TrEMBL record:
This is HSP20 family molecular chaperone IbpA. Gene3D superfamilies: 2.60.40.790. The lineage of its organism: Bacteria, Bacillati, Bacillota, Bacilli, Bacillales. It comes from the Bacteria. InterPro entries: HSP20-like_chaperone.
Length: 155
């Protein structure tokens, strides 16, 4: 085997090994499979995320020690409560663009990076961590027709 053939085989092996590491390489794109992969990746990142020096959240907000993450279908907010339990009288409110956390006199609003559907929001508290999943609004931006006047009239 000459030097060029060996080099070609080396590149083929590199290519095969590289494709093994890319989850969707060489496959048809299936939205559900990609969404499941992203959910698993976010869940894995969130499980190791808070307090990990190697983890860099997309956005850190609040005195409630919250982090905000986003996928193409949902926005996730994760808040850490070091005392291991929710504060007395804790309440959570969602609007299309904000999440509001309240505990007695303490109140904080977290701006969300996109519009969500508040009625489909889910929250779970476990192990001192509040996880909130806010599904993005599936409604496309509404357009309104604007009528154009002809002539010299002022706006």
């Amino acid at each position: 085997m000459n030097r060029w053939q060996r080099s070609s085989q080396d590149w083929d092996e590199i290519h095969r090994n590289l494709l093994k590491q890319i989850p969707f390489a060489g496959k048809e794109f299936d939205g559900a499979s990609i969404e499941n992969y992203v959910h698993r990746a976010v869940k894995k990142a969130m499980a190791h995320g808070i307090g990990s020096p190697s983890f860099s959240p997309a956005f850190r907000a609040s005195s409630f020690d919250c982090e905000v993450f986003e996928t193409h279908l949902s926005i996730f907010v994760q808040c850490r409560f070091p005392e291991g339990e929710l504060p007395k009288g804790f309440k959570l409110f969602a609007s299309r663009t904000k999440l509001k956390l309240e505990a007695g006199e303490r109140s904080e609003t977290v701006s969300l990076p996109g519009e969500i559907n508040p009625s489909r929001t889910l929250a779970r508290f476990r192990g001192g961590i509040l996880e909130v999943r806010l599904p993005k609004s599936g409604e496309p931006e509404a357009y309104r027709e604007i009528f154009v006047r002809e002539g010299e009239s002022s706006l």
